[in-house]
Design a protein that fits this description.
The complex is a heterodimer.
Chain A lengths: L6 H11 L6 E17 L2 E19 L2 E8 L3 H12 L13 E2 L16 H17 L4 E19 L3 E20 L2 E11 L11 H14 L3 E2 L3 E7 L6 H11 L1 H5 L20 E4 L20 E6 L2 E2 L6 H7 L7 E2 L8 E2 L3 E4 L6 H6 L3 E14 L4 E13 L2 E7 L1 E6 H6 L1 E4 L4 E9 L2 E9 L2 E9 L4
Parallel strand pairs in A: 4-6, 8-18, 9-16, 15-22
Antiparallel strand pairs in A: 1-2, 1-5, 2-3, 5-6, 6-7, 9-23, 10-11, 10-15, 11-12, 13-14, 16-17, 17-18, 17-19, 19-23, 20-23, 21-22
Helix pairs in contact in A: 1-2, 3-4
Chain B lengths: L1 H13 L4 E17 L2 E19 L2 E7 L4 H17 L29 H5 L2 H17 L4 E20 L4 E19 L2 E11 L7 H14 L9 E7 L1 H14 L2 H5 L20 E4 L20 E6 L2 E2 L6 H7 L7 E2 L8 E2 L3 E4 L6 H8 L2 E8 L1 H4 L6 E12 L2 E14 H6 L1 E4 L4 E3 L4 E4 L2 E9 L2
Parallel strand pairs in B: 7-14, 13-19
Antiparallel strand pairs in B: 1-2, 1-4, 2-3, 4-5, 5-6, 7-20, 8-9, 8-13, 9-10, 11-12, 14-15, 15-16, 16-20, 17-20, 18-19
Helix pairs in contact in B: 1-2, 4-5
Classes of the chains: A alpha+beta, B alpha+beta.
Amino acid sequence: MSFLIDPEVAERVLRRALAHGGDFAEVFAERATGMTMAIDESRLESVQAGAEEGAGVRVVSGATTYFAHVDGLDPADLERAAEEAAGALRGESAAPRSLRAVATDPHPVEMRPGEVPAERKAALLRELDDRGRGAGAEIAQLLASYAEARREVTVANSEGLLCGDDRTRVRIGVQAVARRGELVETGAETLGGHRGFELFDGDPGAVAESAAGKALTLLEAGPAPAGSMPVVVGGGFGGVLFHEMTGHGLEADHVQKGASVYASKLGERVAQPLLSAYDDGRMPNEWGSDSIDDEGAPTQRTAVIEEGRLTSYLYDRLTARRDGVASTGNGRRESFRYLPVPRMTNTYIAPGEATPEEMIAEVPRGFYAVSFGGGQVDPATGDFVFGVTEGYLIEGGKVTRPCRGATLIGNCLEALIAIDALGSDFEIKTGVCGKVGQKVPVGTGQGHVRIGAMTVGGTEV
Amino acid sequence: MNGIAEEAVAAALAAGAGEAEAYASEDRRREVRAHGGAVESLTAATQRGIGVRAWIGGKVGYAFGTDLSEAGLAEIGACATEAARVADEDEFAAPPVPVRPIPDMEGKGAPELSDSSVAAWSIGDVSELALAVEDAALAADGRVAGVEQAVYADSTERIAVASSTGVGDEYERSSCYAYVQALAEGDGGRETGLGFGLGRGPAALDPVAIGREGGERATAMIGATKPPSRSCPVVLDPTVAASFVGILGRGLGASAVQRGRSPFAGRVGSETAAQAFALSDDGLDPDGPASSPFDGEGVPRRRTALIEDRTLRTYLYDTYSARRGGAASTGNAGRGGYRVLPGVAPSNLIVAPGGLSFEELLRAAGEGVLVTDVAGLHSGVNPVSGVFSVGASGLAVRGGELAEPLREFTIAGDLVSMLGAVEAVGDEPRWVPFGGSVSTPPLLIGAMTVAGS
């Protein structure tokens, strides 16, 4: 693949970045194009297209990182960024190594979204609208969106690395609103991948039916219970639970600042022996995958928990250097306007052997959380919350009725070790994860997971 | 900037658009992150970009980009026009018409939107400020074990809006903030506390107060336990109240109402809140972080009373929702930057201060909970129905006074009932950047469901 910047220009920029000293310099160049459109009230609208290109240059000197970014990829733009990044340094100039191009293996894209006619994307949205509204007379509103993005990136650094990636992602999302008199409920579903328009070759309309089905189900919902009880979490997007409660605490920047409950716990038992978990940025065409991270390190499959023991943190270049280990390929950034930080890619609990029915049958009274609107964790304390968008009461080993407005809350150390059953079903879902003001696509997954006891925050005390 | 915006408008018209509008911004930013007594990272950057909205009859398209050369603007204008051809006809879609006069904030005796200290303080000066915030957090209490990070950031932005209907104005605005996430240890556990401050320039920030707030909030939580599940009076501190007010403000946007996605549909003119709670949107407040002469479509900002005397007075409108709702724009077209279409959004939301001091508010609560932090708002609140359940931490209130720290519980209810249950409002408002730009005192809610053990 071709690079966004000429290797000679990149070398010149790196020399300039190290002109006043520094241990390491890097230029990250990016060209991003994309388009989005939506259908709302059965009307196609919000058709938007965008194109941006630019570069970020960083110089690392001791414990300090100097960073500047510019719009545009002309040699003059890049040199300006290098000068601005190096502007606050006062040392002797250092010399970068000559660049050596490293081949990478971008995820295959069969049908470039940019080459698919807009009418076809519009037709996809109209199908989502028809199918979602067709799911029931009580569907009052439906909003469906389509997004495509292509990010071409080139990374060059003073250690001689030159490599690139070409990333295409597409995603559809549906939000349905069901109404019965005064009662209003919503349901949402998404489908996305690191791939082309071929993702929608199957039956994308099922996404809309699923969103509408959730909203319709909730019309029958009663209040959610409040208090501590066993919780069975559904497969797929239920994986956001592991992402929040454990994944963030494994990101090495939190760990190194003592701001993670998993600090100094490597090798220790953090879960029951039945549980193993991974971060895998290599899963073919998954939403959270890339061929390299945003520092040029190849993505990899990292076992973070093996048979209940904590086996690895997730590293970018700087945190890996600090711990004297190799980067795990988790240095990611939202765009060239941000510094890379350790981030998850596709994170999941490996499936177990139970069926969801067996897991539920053992619960006398509990809560069944099928999907979440999202969650949040404070990695330093381990306290987390999840908003449940689809949840049910479990009574006498059976799912009895849907519940609205529930939140799961707990502490990750206690909740992780309380996982006592894993389902054999397995699915990865798409998410967008925010950290230090940067959003990146992440995959979250698992089969059904049962937690022995957890606080459900409903209104029925 | 205005010249560039006008050029982009012309480009869209040349590509076949009937009407066009351009929003151009240039933003100079600095950010310092400090940790462990040293600067961890320094960022300096300027970014410029433009977004063009094109109309072909009632069809609207949008395109944005960062290439502001003549060829780049022509491409963006053409892309926006192309996008409009794909959209469906919408009878209410039309470009904003110019409204005069644009308010002159300085003429009203208000302070400037730009503070000279942003330019006057060197990167070394603001680095010292970030380090001073960290120091103050560590000095706040012996149990503060460290900080996760202390951050200072500022920006100076120039915004221009131009349209084929004659809109054409620009302004400059500076802003800055500093925050610290402090870590405290004790009772075998670790707690975090956020301290923050915001202003138009670094001279307005008090690094000692910001650091101390972070340290004190973290140490206050040491030894926190789960409260029992029950329904009880709840005091929301300003940072928490602001998060709820922000969600409320979005629900009062006319587009959410018109599209059946707001719990406040059909409530204008009817009783919506307790007497104690009054809310306005004021895009011209001299201290408001979101204040500006005009909104994201060039329509003048103004003050709009939203809730007063128990009654919902109006929704917030941009040009499109005003045409659709048979109202006038309230100057509430928000822009999340040049990359996104404008949409209805609050400017500065202001909760009118009440008459009770914080101590009096706690006494009025009697036996209950003070909530100092909430988590999971983006997933725990259903903006369509207003039903919410969010994670919370804070302190118990016993006999009208603060008692032991509490964590890992949820508060649940629905927005409309919560507004009706506001029993009293504190007398000291604070600007909070959560949930948009909100100024609010602490609020006493008569009863809420607390779920813990």
